[in-house]
Amino acid sequence: NLNSGLEGLDFKAPNAEQQGKLCQFRINTQIENEKYLRSHPELQLLIAEFLREVLFMRSEDTREFAAEHFADPELLERIQIKHLSPRSIDV
User: Fold this and answer.
1) Can you give the C-alpha Rg of the chain in angstroms?
2) What's the distance, CA 10 to chain centroid?
3) How many CB atoms lie under 10 A from the CB of residue 66?
4) CA pair distance 15, 64, nearest whole angstrom
5) Record's PANTHER family (predicted)?
6) How far is 78 from 66, CA to CA, in rounded Å?
7) For residues 35 and 41, what is the distance between their CA atoms, to the nearest angstrom?
8) Which DSSP string corresponds to 17-86?
9) I want to staple 88 with a disulfide (CB 3.0 to 4.6 A). Which of 25, 52, 64, 82 is the partner?
């Protein structure tokens, strides 16, 4: 029984160079995401409002609740009012 010595290797695993590139990609992506979120403060309001509603209502079907929440025609107005409010973000 001749073994090649490669039986334990995972050929799908990234090598050191690929791992470095992946790490740098993740860092760059995180930086770009943070820049985007900072330039769109209304996103924090949308997410905070949604989480507040989810936790308050405790819906059994979160997907359906989310669909209804984000399809609500009054959502934009609520977010705009909170966006203009001095204490707009308090979860």
Assistant:
1) 23
2) 30
3) 14
4) 42
5) RIIA DOMAIN-CONTAINING PROTEIN 1
6) 16
7) 11
8) HHHHHHHHHHHHHHHHHHHHHHH-HHHHHHHHHHHHHHHHH--S-HHHHHHHHHH-TTHHHHHHHHHHST
9) 82
Distance CA 3, CA 50 (A): 57
In 3D space, the residue among 24, 21, 48 whose CA is nearest the CA of residue 32 turns out to be 24
Separation of alpha carbons 41 and 34, rounded Å? 11
The one-letter code for the residue type at 71 is A
46 neighbors 38 (Cβ within 8 angstroms):
no
* pTM assigned to the model: 0.55
Looking up tokens 């707009």 gives 88
Rounded (10°) angle between helices 75-84 and 41-57: 120
